[in-house]
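Sample entry (103 residues):
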Amino acid sequence: MELKMTNRKALITGGSMGLGRAIARAFAGAGADVAIVARRAEVLEQAKAEIEAATGRTVLPVAADVSTASGCEAAFAAAVDGFGRVDVLVNNAGSSARAPFTE
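Predicted structure, serialized as tokens:
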């Protein structure tokens, strides 16, 4: 399957590592500019450098905690401020706590 995202603007939470980073790189490789959101600025900067070098697209690193409403609002505002719009949203951030179902 060929993915074409020419001139699209994507906002990807959890975009600094793992699946989120892979999605960001794939979208950028398909022509999108991507805003990647995570809590740690230093990891975001590493991901930005790698994705931009590999794809030539613009990567906007956004340090925010999307487990809070204010963090979500700040991340979206930063993406719109940086790109003028958001065409695609990937909600990838999350965590889990291992425990028995009843807990």
